[in-house]
Description:
Blueprint: E1 4-13, E2 17-25, E3 31-39, E4 42-47, E5 53-61, E6 66-70, E7 72-75, H1 82-94, E8 96-98, E9 102-107, E10 118-123, E11 126-128, E12 140-145, H2 149-154, H3 161-175
Parallel strand pairs: 4-10
Antiparallel strand pairs: 1-2, 2-3, 4-7, 5-6, 5-12, 8-11, 9-10
Amino acid sequence: MQWANLNEQTVYENRWFRVNLADVVIPDGRHLDHYLIRLRPVAAATAVNEADEVLLLWRHRFITDSWGWELAAGVVEDGEDIAAAAAREMEEETGWRPGPLRPLLTVEPSNGLIDARHHLYWSEQADWTGTPSDAFESSRREWIPLKLVPDLIARGEVPAAGMAAGLMMLRHLRLG
């Protein structure tokens, strides 16, 4: 029961994404016009300290008009290594440079419409480098106890599904 994408035409494009219209054939032979969004990969990173606290950003997302905790994240530039992009984003957005990064998980946040993959990483160490160059990305940056993650998610304070999944995975890895 596999759908086939016979052809795509770009409807709109900028440096961040492309909106394409695809000619899709479904298993019964019918054709559908299906819009899709092509995005660069996203890289995210955080660190966990010796007290089992995770470094998070508190930020507002104007699109959904919601506030929540997130990992530092951003798009991977052309030719950039994904883990290097995650480390760069973490330092730019938090002022903390991560130590060696470990893969946490990769998610596809909306794979019925968008081809984006979000690659999440974590480190057991971070060094303070100073005020974040992209401080405008969040209202504050805090070390939050990993044991509180399920409650934060339950209260809707981690609204991004990929971030919630990553934080639950990190909690499991560190606390069992």
